């Protein structure tokens, strides 16, 4: 396995498995969300809250039936959007790009899309084309590996203080990190 995570690719790792799907939760981003937990993450951060999902063969294969269910669940008026977590969404782009594309096709910008990633923004910008394609669909990304020595339970939407909540579209336009500004979450 390559030491530099920028060189890791979805084609190298992904088995297109899903660790879990949770409709209508309140913890994986702002508002009520449908959360898809993809399987597999080679970062293996010490203190990871979802250690089982580090295995790329954990869970079950992604399916059109699951995708259809997610699209149907997102239709609820009270549901703000989709969240991608894991595992590592940027190493499961065959699944995450397909789903995000369909969400944009069905809902346009009326549903937002969040993702968590062990990659930093800077690593994603140096990464493979599929990582940039996935970013193009996202509204918010929480970047960076979880660092146990920087763990802070008082942070909104982050586990450790090194992680950032990034406004993806503003950052792509500015060609620099623009932090997500919504109330106290900056």
How does the SSE layout of this entry go?
Elements: H1 10-13, E1 17-25, E2 32-38, E3 60-61, H2 64-74, E4 79-85, H3 93-107, E5 112-116, H4 121-126, H5 129-137, E6 140-143, E7 164-167, H6 168-174
Parallel strand pairs: 2-4, 4-5, 5-6
Antiparallel strand pairs: 1-2, 1-3, 6-7
Helix pairs in contact: 3-5
Percent of residues in helices: 25-40%
Shape: globular
Percentage of residues in DSSP E strands: 15-25%
Instruction: Please give the order of strands in the largest beta sheet.
Output: 3-1-2-4-5-6-7
**What structural category characterises the helix and strand content?**
alpha/beta
Number of domains: 1
CATH topology annotation: TIM Barrel
Low-confidence stretches: none
Number of strands: 7
| Radius of gyration, whole Å | 15 Å
The SSE string, one letter per element, is HEEEHEHEHHEEH
Mean pLDDT, all residues: 95
CATH superfamily: Aldolase class I
């Amino acid at each position: 396995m390559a030491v530099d995570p920028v060189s890791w690719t979805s084609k190298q790792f992904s088995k297109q498995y899903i660790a879990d799907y949770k409709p209508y939760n309140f913890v994986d981003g702002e508002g009520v969300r449908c959360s898809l937990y993809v399987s597999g993450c080679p970062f293996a951060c010490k203190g990871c809250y979802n250690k089982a999902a580090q295995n790329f063969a954990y869970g079950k294969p992604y399916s059109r039936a699951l995708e259809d269910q997610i699209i149907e669940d997102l239709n609820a008026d009270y549901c703000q959007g989709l969240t991608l977590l894991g595992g590592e969404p940027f190493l499961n782009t065959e699944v995450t790009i397909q789903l995000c594309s369909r969400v944009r096709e069905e809902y346009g910008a009326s549903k937002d899309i969040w993702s968590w990633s062990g990659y930093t923004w800077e690593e994603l910008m140096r990464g493979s084309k599929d990582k940039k394609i996935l970013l193009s669909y996202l509204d918010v990304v929480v970047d960076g590996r979880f660092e146990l020595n920087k763990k802070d339970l008082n942070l909104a939407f982050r586990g450790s203080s090194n992680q950032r909540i990034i406004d993806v579209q503003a950052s792509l336009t500015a060609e620099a990190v623009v932090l997500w500004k919504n109330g106290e979450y900056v």
